[in-house]
């Protein structure tokens, strides 16, 4: 089936749901082929106006779709799957963006072996075309379906494929990772204010420094270690700051946080 002919149902229209709508359209799916299921009337109207997609009840949407994107909260997943079980068409490709929920969990609740399932861990920078996604495919997924998933997610960032048992590690790395970064930015702004800078100046200095450093990391071809060493003169200011980080066991702190995220992802299963 050609991309333009696919009927796509997007179940859940929050921040990530919107990012995926944008990805589909960027990839070449016609907005007229995309239907969301969103109970919040104001939110549905916002997306209809912004992307020219349609809104429909869950049952009607699922009954006509060739491809379903599940973008609901983990705690709502079982109820949603129970509700759509009777309506889902054989052969409909199900792509789940739900943290922690395994392919087997989805297949069992749908109660059919006729639906290929792809599990994806995305992240929110997809909203600005800089997302990072990891996909895992079940045995029913065709080469064409796999390429489609890689293609439309690649339209808004980078994509890798991993064994499903590594999805919890992906969640702890790239899925939750943007929030680690934002928290560090908050801490830097607070630190700058404590040194006497105004909140406005502290914010400008910090954000531009972080954005510039990320761009340098992305475009220079150097490793993080090389870039760090280039900025760090022996016994200089950067050296002093990095020693403070190391004294606080920054690697241990980050690893502990990532393990907590990984463990929570496993609990959500």
Automatic annotation (TrEMBL):
<comment type="similarity">
    <text>Belongs to the pyrroline-5-carboxylate reductase family.</text>
</comment>
<dbReference type="InterPro" id="IPR036291">
    <property type="entry name" value="NAD(P)-bd_dom_sf"/>
</dbReference>
<dbReference type="Pfam" id="PF03807">
    <property type="entry name" value="F420_oxidored"/>
</dbReference>
<protein>
    <submittedName>
        <fullName>Unannotated protein</fullName>
    </submittedName>
</protein>
<dbReference type="InterPro" id="IPR008927">
    <property type="entry name" value="6-PGluconate_DH-like_C_sf"/>
</dbReference>
<feature type="domain" description="Pyrroline-5-carboxylate reductase catalytic N-terminal">
    <location>
        <begin position="7"/>
        <end position="100"/>
    </location>
</feature>
<dbReference type="GO" id="GO:0004735">
    <property type="term" value="F:pyrroline-5-carboxylate reductase activity"/>
</dbReference>
<dbReference type="InterPro" id="IPR029036">
    <property type="entry name" value="P5CR_dimer"/>
</dbReference>
<dbReference type="InterPro" id="IPR000304">
    <property type="entry name" value="Pyrroline-COOH_reductase"/>
</dbReference>
<dbReference type="InterPro" id="IPR028939">
    <property type="entry name" value="P5C_Rdtase_cat_N"/>
</dbReference>
<keyword id="KW-0521">NADP</keyword>
<dbReference type="Pfam" id="PF14748">
    <property type="entry name" value="P5CR_dimer"/>
</dbReference>
<keyword id="KW-0560">Oxidoreductase</keyword>
<dbReference type="InterPro" id="IPR053790">
    <property type="entry name" value="P5CR-like_CS"/>
</dbReference>
<dbReference type="GO" id="GO:0055129">
    <property type="term" value="P:L-proline biosynthetic process"/>
</dbReference>
<feature type="domain" description="Pyrroline-5-carboxylate reductase dimerisation">
    <location>
        <begin position="164"/>
        <end position="268"/>
    </location>
</feature>
């Amino acid at each position: 089936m050609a991309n333009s002919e696919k009927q796509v149902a997007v179940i859940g229209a929050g921040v990530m749901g919107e990012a995926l709508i944008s990805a589909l359209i960027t990839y070449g799916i016609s907005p007229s082929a995309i239907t969301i299921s969103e109970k919040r009337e104001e939110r549905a109207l916002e997306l209809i106006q912004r992307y020219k997609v349609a809104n429909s009840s869950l049952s009607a949407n699922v009954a006509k779709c060739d491809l379903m994107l599940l973008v609901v909260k983990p705690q709502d997943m079982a109820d949603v799957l129970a509700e759509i079980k009777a309506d889902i068409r054989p052969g409909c490709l199900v792509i789940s963006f739900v943290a922690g929920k395994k392919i087997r969990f989805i297949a069992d609740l749908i109660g059919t072996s006729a639906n290929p399932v792809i599990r994806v861990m995305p992240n929110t920078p997809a909203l600005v075309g800089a997302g990072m996604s990891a996909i895992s495919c079940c045995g029913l997924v065709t080469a064409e379906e796999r390429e489609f998933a890689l293609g439309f997610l690649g339209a808004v960032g980078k994509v890798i494929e991993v064994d499903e048992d590594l999805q919890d590690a992906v969640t702890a790395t790239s899925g939750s990772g943007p929030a680690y970064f934002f928290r560090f930015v908050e801490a830097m702004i607070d630190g700058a204010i404590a040194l006497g800078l105004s909140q406005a100046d502290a914010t400008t200095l910090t954000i531009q420094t972080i954005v510039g450093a990320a761009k340098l990391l992305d475009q220079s071809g150097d490793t993080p270690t090389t870039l760090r060493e280039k900025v760090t003169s022996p016994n200089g200011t950067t050296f002093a700051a990095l020693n403070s980080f190391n004294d606080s066991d920054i690697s241990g702190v980050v690893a502990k946080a990532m393990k907590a995220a990984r463990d929570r992802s496993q609990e959500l299963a």
